[in-house]
């Protein structure tokens, strides 16, 4: 048995340099490459943001002048004040220069800096979308773990089927349905939950105010969770199914470990890696919120602000909110790649 092994050794050593594996990049080099890619993506977003919104139909000056008896000369003066009479290329260079100085311009509709408007609206968005994300991740990971560990059982079939149905339902339709059932009410059955805004007109103070805001969050948060939690459930379930068939799980069971210990200490930590990536990606969308959900429930967040900018159309406000959303997604995707590289040794050795 020794001779074949000794004979095989020179063959490995005689392998040419073309068969050698490329030098593995360190974590720092990997992170810098990802940051470079993110900066390039942000540059492309800046370019696309300017030109895409210029393709939208409608004249913002005429829309702003609705209800005001303005002469053509006054319209031209307003267009000059907004810089819309300049050649498109000049407008583009002005936009890029202002963006690099973190100046997102002044809203046509609100006559206020876009950054100020974003600062006012980002709090409600983080509250709503952040709460929905925490609930969706917790529910999806828990159900995905149970469904994957007991693959083919009744709980697996029920949870997977339910999540797929909710995931396939249009968000606006589900939101309107929940609003009709629990907000407006059906026939003689009155609605029990508020469905407009973030607080009541006569909102109380103190702890009662927190309860009032929480009651306004129930329907929009439920709509968001019902739509997105299926992603975490399916990813966690699929990942756990792969881990269950691995040799280390078989060895752990052969050592006499209880089934719960094998799942909790061995299978679940490894199966969580793809879910971590998905969570980081979803955090980027938290900044942008859910435009559809916030519009349906008139939640005063960035999604509602973006919708209001489209209706006008308000170019500067659309550009500012869109860039914030897309840049947040790019940054979170980059962080997800770096974190996954740190957590999974298989990625580092690739």
Automatic annotation (TrEMBL):
Membrane-spanning residues: 31-53, 122-143, 164-187, 207-230, 271-297, 317-343
Keyword presence, NAD: no
Domain named ABC transmembrane type-1: residues: 122-336
Keyword annotations of the record: Cell membrane, Membrane, Transmembrane, Transmembrane helix, Transport
Keyword presence, Cytoplasm: no
Location of region: Disordered: 1-20
GO cellular component entries: plasma membrane
GO BP, one annotated term: transmembrane transport
UniProt-listed SUPFAM superfamilies: MetI-like (SSF161098)
Gene3D superfamilies, per database record: MetI-like
Protein name: Peptide/nickel transport system permease protein
Organism (species): Nonomuraea jiangxiensis
Lineage of the organism: Bacteria, Bacillati, Actinomycetota, Actinomycetes, Streptosporangiales
């Amino acid at each position: 048995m020794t001779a074949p092994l000794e004979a095989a050794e020179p063959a490995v050593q005689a392998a040419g340099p073309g068969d050698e594996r490329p030098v593995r990049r360190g974590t720092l080099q990997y992170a810098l490459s990802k940051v470079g890619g993110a900066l390039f993506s942000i540059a492309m977003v800046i370019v696309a943001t300017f030109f895409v919104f210029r393709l939208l139909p409608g004249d913002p000056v005429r829309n702003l002048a609705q209800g005001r008896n303005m002469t053509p000369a006054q319209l031209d003066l307003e267009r000059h004040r907004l810089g819309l009479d300049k050649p498109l290329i000049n407008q583009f260079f002005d936009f890029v220069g202002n963006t690099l100085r973190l100046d997102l311009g002044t809203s046509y509709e609100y006559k206020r800096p876009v950054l100020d408007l974003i600062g006012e609206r980002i709090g409600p968005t983080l509250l709503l979308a952040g709460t929905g994300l925490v609930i969706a991740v917790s529910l999806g990971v828990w159900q995905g773990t149970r469904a994957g560990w007991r693959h083919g059982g009744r709980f697996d079939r029920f949870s997977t089927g339910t999540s797929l149905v909710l995931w396939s339902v249009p968000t606006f339709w589900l939101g309107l349905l929940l609003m009709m059932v629990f907000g407006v009410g059906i026939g003689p059955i009155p609605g029990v939950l508020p469905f407009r805004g973030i607080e009541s007109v006569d909102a109380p103070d103190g702890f009662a105010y927190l309860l009032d805001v929480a009651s306004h969050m129930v329907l929009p948060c439920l709509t968001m969770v019902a739509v997105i939690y299926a992603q975490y459930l399916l990813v966690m379930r699929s990942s756990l199914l792969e881990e269950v068939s691995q040799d280390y799980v078989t060895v752990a069971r052969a050592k006499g470990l209880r089934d719960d210990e094998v799942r909790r200490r061995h299978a679940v930590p490894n199966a969580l890696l793809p879910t971590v990536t998905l969570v980081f990606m979803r955090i980027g969308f938290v900044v942008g919120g859910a435009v559809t959900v916030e519009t349906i429930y008139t939640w005063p967040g960035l999604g509602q602000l973006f919708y209001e900018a489209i209706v006008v159309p308000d170019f500067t406000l659309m550009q500012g909110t869109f860039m914030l959303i897309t840049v947040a997604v790019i940054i979170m995707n980059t962080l997800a790649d770096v974190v996954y590289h740190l957590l999974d040794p298989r990625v580092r050795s690739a």
